[in-house]
Amino acid sequence: MGKIFNMFLYIFISSFALSYAQSCNNYTFSTNQIYATCVSLPVLNSHLHWNYHSNGTVDVAFRHTGSTASQWVAWALNVNGSGMIGAQAIVAVTSPSGAVRVYTSAVNNYGTGLEESSLSFGVPRMIAERVNGDLVVYASLVLPNGRTRFNHVWQVGPVNNGVLSMHSMSPDNRNSVGEVDFITGQMRAGGRSGDVSRQRRRNAHGVLNVVSWGVLMPIGAMSARYLKAFNVANPAWFYIHAATQTSAYIVGVSGWATGLKLGSESSGIKHNAHRNIGIILFALGTLQVFALLLRPKPDHKYRFYWNIYHRSIGYCVIILSIVNMYRGLDILDPEKKWKNAYTGIIISLGVITLLCEALKWFIVLKRKKEEKRTHAGTNGSIGDNGYGQSV
Ligand SMILES: *[C@@H]1O[C@H](CO)[C@@H](O)[C@H](O)[C@H]1NC(C)=O
Ligand SMILES: *[C@@H]1O[C@H](CO)[C@@H](O)[C@H](O)[C@H]1NC(C)=O
Ligand SMILES: *[C@@H]1O[C@H](CO)[C@@H](O)[C@H](O)[C@H]1NC(C)=O
Ligand SMILES: *[C@@H]1O[C@H](CO)[C@@H](O)[C@H](O)[C@H]1NC(C)=O
């Protein structure tokens, strides 16, 4: 089913690419340069022409039609990621004198002013001109790592008093991303299908992990710590705790697996740290689940040590999980909407924990007092129910 769908998608995209190609391959450049391949990009009146050489270089001409002197134009390869962050851009700006300045800018944040900086690959030649309302950027690129297929992104924005301002957020300006293969000439029409399915997988990864590691596991730990103390559910607290953590673990492992798949498609310091913490978490989480099977009987002399071990690993997992949720949400959603929502959840859990903690101490102290007064402390009070010392 999926295969058939992919095949149709492929045919659809290829015919798109072909029809685009036909409408731009008769353009005559002022230099009379002939390019073997050309593709009209789906948004922002842009066309990409190129010749690929077997030594791994490509000569491109990026053409923005209907361009005005008060606009900047950029075209970029995103070598390791997709979209704006990581884009290795070639930028063209028309100066007041009418000359076109062209330079490179590696984009690493959303607040960029497209300042000049060097790219992660070589650009031995770069010129730009303005012809009949078209802005044309010519550049030769030394493609990195012998690769020929890249995500690319192109953009047009306003220039105010010589300052490059942020592009608008219209659908066209947001959809100006795609994938280009310099050998086959194949384009994803805007790369949308790839980006959409990848974004869907990223979201799934985020939701699964936030629900499991980020929310259920802390709740599972709270159920162990407080239900037991309140004596409301004894020994049911144990089954509630075990069931919560086991389901969190199962959901968490599927979230973790989607993350590994995503991680194999991206790199960078942020991604690597997030992945490494994820792997540590998986190892500790697995240890916790299997430790249950090795749990000594309540009166066993090692039970005390097992309890210490189980709790310290448990708290480590929770702290690391929360840290990694934030790292992941930073990567997933630079606009911080998810992050703010998660912060809300964590604050609520924190407040509930504080209240429970206060109540727990109140109950414990009260019980101790009663025991002292009657000299008849019941042997079945907290901490003596076979599930370990509390507090
Ligand atoms: C290129 O071909 C298209 C149709 O294939 C035509 O509409 C367009 O006018 C041609 N452009 C030039 C510059 O010849
Ligand atoms: C690659 O080949 C092209 C075309 O033959 C040539 O113009 C260019 O200088 C070569 N680049 C390198 C780095 O060898
Ligand atoms: C892309 O990743 C490779 C390998 O990790 C690295 O060498 C290169 O600098 C990265 N490029 C960018 C633009 O981040
Ligand atoms: C608690 O139990 C022990 C034996 O299990 C018994 O000797 C002791 O008297 C009990 N204490 C109270 C306060 O009931």
UniProtKB/TrEMBL annotation:
Q: One Pfam annotation, family name?
A: Cytochrom_B561
Matches recorded under PROSITE patterns: CYTOCHROME_B561, DOMON
Give the membrane topology, semicolon-separated if more than one: Multi-pass membrane protein
Q: Establish whether keyword Phosphoprotein is in the entry.
A: no
Signal peptide bounds: 1-21
Question: Which controlled-vocabulary keywords does the entry list?
Answer: Electron transport, Iron, Membrane, Metal-binding, Signal, Transmembrane, Transmembrane helix, Transport
Q: Name one GO molecular function term.
A: metal ion binding
Co-factor note (free text): Binds 2 heme b groups non-covalently.
Main localization of the protein described in the UniProt heading: membrane
Every DOMON domain range: 44-157
The record, for CDD domains, names: Cyt_b561_FRRS1_like, DOMON_CIL1_like
Instruction: Mark the transmembrane ranges.
Output: 206-224, 277-296, 308-329, 341-363
May I have one GO cellular component term? membrane
Kindly list the places in or outside the cell where this protein is found, as annotated in its UniProt entry.
Membrane
What is the protein named? Cytochrome b561 and DOMON domain-containing protein
Upper classification of the source organism reads: Eukaryota, Viridiplantae, Streptophyta, Embryophyta, Tracheophyta
